[in-house]
Amino acid sequence: MAHLAALGGTPVAPKGLTARWPETGDAERQAILQVLEKGEWCRVGLPDEHSEVAQFEREWASYHDARYCIAVCNGTVALMVALWALDLRHGDEVIVPAVTFIATADAVVLCGGVPVFVDIDPTTYQIDPDAVEAAVTERTKAICVVHYAGYPCDLDRIRAIAEKHGLPVVEDCAHAHGTEWRGRKVGAHITCGGFSFQQSKSLTAGEGGAVVTDDGDLADRIWALHNCGRPKGVGRYEHHIVGGNFRLSEWQGAMLRAQLRRLPEQTRRRMENGAWLAEQLRQLGGLEPLQRDERITQRGYYFFVIRYNAEAFGGVHRDVFLRALRAEGIPAFAGYGVPVYRHPSYTESGVPHKVLPCPNAEHACAHEQITLSNHLLLDRAHCQAVVDACAKISMHLDELRQLAASA
After folding, report:
1. Pure H helices in 202-311
2. What is the Rg, in whole angstroms, of the alpha carbon atoms belonging to the chain?
3. What distance in Å separates the CA atoms of residue 159 and residue 171, rounded to the nearest whole number?
4. 212: which DSSP letter?
5. Contact, 113 vs 91, CB < 8 A?
6. Is 20 helix (H, G, I), strand (E, B) or coil?
7. How far is CA 224 from the centre of its chain?
8. Catalytic site residues?
9. DSSP structure class, residue 367
10. Beta strand pairing status for 93-97 and 114-118?
């Protein structure tokens, strides 16, 4: 009789692991009811002290160790208004990592720029500083780093490169709510950072985004860009630059404020369970979490990333292991599947872009990367199920090979 569920055995999690997300309660209900009853659903015309969005901006800036925050309608727009405010022009190059969600590069394209894809560090999956240095040309306008999976990139090296070449740095923090580097949360370490509050993120209002920075002039320009070109303090129909309506609604501001009060405790749970899960998987062998860096003083999570070693599993490909793991009821995936530049939107559309050698990104995407949702880290029982399923597969390599042969 087969042991692995993929061959007819009993799954570790027969109903599949499902985490209730977002976590909600009376605080969220009251927040929405207050906006409903107030009848002011848009921040335009509201004094900051009466605006849910304005109050969220203050709270998020404070939480993420930044002087300024501008809330916008989504994470892609957060990157776009940051790049616009940095005067990105048609044909300017922006260095981006090859492994990220496609919005990182698309934001550059939508602003008229040219994304230059560079490789990742094979042990952390973060943008490789050496690759960044090699990609700088006279056309380089900015560096856009990503704290992929919530693990921060090497901000020390990136800062040194940026200062050497006089380049601004946009931190894509869509995965990194609560992440700290050397005791300071990411986002405003160098120039500015953009966040997403989409449904799957660890702080969410369904949709939404924000930019944080310590640069007051940059913050003022981003504010005007997101508010139809109106700087703060001018009349409703007085437009000083070309901008758009990228504002967040009062509904979303209220929801984010309520959710933010939950985030520190949720981050603690994710960190504790993530550390426990990493240690358990290391003991199994062949399943290596991202390399630990002592400069990371707090870890926000979007993905829990596992580096799969096929040799430890009899040479069976990562995709077969994933098939076996999913059959056990564990929702595991291969990140975003391919490096960004391999999507049809780049290979078939004629969109201007550059691809530098990315062997680490290619290997990670095709053979190595396994990702779990951050929501599973909220419950130790879910983490235990992941360990049990991986251990079960490890103990039955003959069946795993059989599954591979049938593929």
Report:
1. 216-226, 250-260, 263-284
2. 22
3. 11
4. E
5. yes
6. coil
7. 26
8. 201
9. I
10. parallel
Helix (H) / strand (E) element for 383: namely helix 380-395
Q: Are residues 82 and 157 in the same domain?
A: yes
**Where residue 217 sits, what CATH number does that domain have?**
3.40.640.10
The answer to whether residues 346 and 353 touch, using CB atoms and an 8 Å cutoff, is: yes
Contacts of residue 334, defined as CB under 8 A and 6 or more positions apart, other chains included, come to 318, 319, 322, 365, 369, 370, 371
Domains held by the chain: number: 2
* Domain hosting residue 317, numbered range: 264-406
Q: What is the pLDDT of residues 206-262, one digit of tens each?
A: 999 999 999 999 999 999 999 999 999 888 899 999 999 999 999 999 999 999 999
Residue 300 identity (one-letter amino acid): G
Other CB atoms within 10 Å distance of the CB of residue 44: 13
Find where tokens 């098939």 sit.
323
φ, ψ at 248 (rounded to 5°): -90, 145
The pTM for the full model equals 0.97
Q: How confident is residue 56, by pLDDT bands cut at 50, 70 and 90? A: very high
CA distances, 341 to each of 66, 98, 103 (Å): 32, 7, 12
